[in-house]
Design brief:
Alpha-Beta Plaits, 2 domains, alpha/beta, Aminopeptidase, 15 helices
Length: 470
């Protein structure tokens, strides 16, 4: 009896092993997927924050991969004004039949504290169908996809009809300005191109697990950062005065909280609302159609504005993001500052917005100072041939998914390229759930399946833009 049980147990174990092996085989990655995953993992586990990280380390890691793949050393540039935050530029030579195409992503990421996350943000984690880690969605997935596809094309002996320029940059997430802005001003010849495809914009959209749109970013809001300050003589904490600098500033911030910039619709946002209305129903669908026709009905606007995203599509926004005040717990504050982040619709100037904020505050004691040197932000020109190519690739890879032009409510390095006269189009390849976008947030993640689909999509797109697509 014991011998029979022993044999039976052995059979069960063997069956379980075979089932596990079969399952593992069915999930085995292709060589291209495995390459992309390995690059992705390597980039996530290199800390590239501005406080403690180093994009140069990441750039050198990518350089090693390019050299191993057979790219000439002379075609790989690691450059930038600071040793800790450098960019890597690769030129993949083609026949020169058409002018170069620039493909852009960035290596730096926003800060991430281990205490804020349920896991180590700088450890690449695959769990429950997602890749976790700081930069998984913003935008080391895009960097890994581009690097993997350039290596894949090189191994295939592919000869494009134009030079392909890959730029993986520093400085996009703030801090020092040593990325695209620096390249435009100091090494423009390295990135000069007919147009740019930016991986940091135009995410295709998922809703309730369904692919609803292949977005193409034609324009984006620009960034204007302001410092609001109230100064005061201060004094002893035992002798409070009504004109406390903190209270005074708080009154101004209360006005800002209650203020709405006027609604300004463009052809891009009108088209977006109209096309997206077909994915909604009821009042929301009707409101989206109305605003697409430039409705000024305050009830329509107010209902749509409940959504932070729809509100940001319709108007410029300014929001307080940091405070700084006082010098001692037992002293009246001599200064109170608020830092305000404004996202400005294309067509508006920085001076216009500063003037509007000043008029809204209506308080000469709140002094406004512009931080940095914000760039102009014209929309990219309409490009029917580009849109046709994107539609062809999308129809082949994701049949039935509509291609929709959008304005991004955030901002990317596309601002500096557009300001310099290089048309830039955001065309990321990785679908993002519109209700679960964790970029800059806790437990940032993207779908595993979506990542591998993005690898194939961008591969097809690169080929389509450099030889035609079959």
């Amino acid at each position: 009896m014991k011998q029979k049980l022993k044999n039976y147990s052995g059979t069960v174990i063997l069956m379980l092993v075979l089932i596990h092996f079969s399952s593992a085989q069915s999930k085995k990655l292709s060589p291209n997927q495995e390459l992309a995953r390995n690059i992705f993992k390597e980039l996530i586990e290199i800390n590239t924050t501005h406080s403690a990280g180093n994009t140069t380390v990441a750039a050198l890691a990518i350089r090693r991969r390019f050299l191993d793949a057979g790219f000439p050393e002379k075609d790989i540039q690691i450059t930038g004004p600071e040793t800790r935050n450098r960019n890597i530029i690769l030129r993949y030579h083609g026949t020169g039949k058409r002018p170069p195409l620039l493909l852009l992503s960035h290596l730096d990421v926003v800060e991430a504290r281990r205490s804020d996350w349920s896991m180590d943000p700088f450890k690449f984690t695959e769990k429950d169908g997602f890749f976790y880690g700081r930069g998984t969605s913003d935008i080391k997935d895009g960097s890994a996809i581009l690097v993997a596809n350039f290596i894949r094309l090189k191994k295939e002996g592919y000869v494009p009809d134009r030079d392909l320029i890959l730029a993986l940059t520093a400085g996009e997430e703030g801090g020092v300005y040593d990325g695209v802005e620096w390249l435009v001003n100091n090494r423009r010849s390295l990135i000069e191109a007919a147009f740019c495809i930016n991986m940091d914009a135009g995410d295709p959209q998922l809703k309730n697990g369904k692919k609803i749109a292949r977005t193409v970013q034609l324009s984006e809001k620009s960034v204007l950062n302001l410092e609001l300050e109230v100064k005061n003589p201060g004094g002893h904490g035992s002798l409070p005065v009504k004109n406390n600098a903190i209270y005074h500033l708080a009154g101004g911030l209360g006005k800002m909280q209650a203020y709405d910039f006027p609604v300004q619709m463009s052809e891009i946002t009108q088209s977006y609302f109209y096309k997206m209305s077909s994915f909604e129903s009821g009042q929301l669908a009707e409101d989206m159609k109305s605003i697409a026709q430039n409705s000024t009905d305050p009830q329509v606007i107010n209902r749509l504005a409940i959504s932070p995203y729809y509100n940001a599509l319709m108007r410029t926004t300014c929001v307080a993001t940091m405070l700084e005040a006082g010098h001692a717990i037992n002293a009246l504050p001599q200064s109170a500052k608020a830092f305000v982040n404004c996202r400005i619709l294309p067509g508006n100037t920085n001076d216009q917005i500063v003037k509007e904020v000043n008029e809204m505050l209506n308080d000469s004691q709140i002094v406004i100072k512009v931080i940095g040197h914000p760039a102009a932000n014209p929309p990219s020109p309409s490009n029917p041939e580009l849109m046709k190519t994107v539609e062809q690739v999308t129809k082949k890879i994701w049949p039935g998914v509509p291609v929709i032009a959008v304005m991004d409510v955030g901002a990317s390095d596309g601002i500096y390229l557009r300001s310099a006269g290089i048309p830039t189009y955001g065309i990321s390849g990785v679908f993002v759930d519109e209700d679960d976008n964790r970029a800059h947030g806790r437990d940032e993640r993207i779908g595993v399946k979506e990542f591998y689909e993005g690898v194939e999509y961008e591969y097809a797109l690169i080929r389509a833009f450099s030889s035609g697509y079959k």
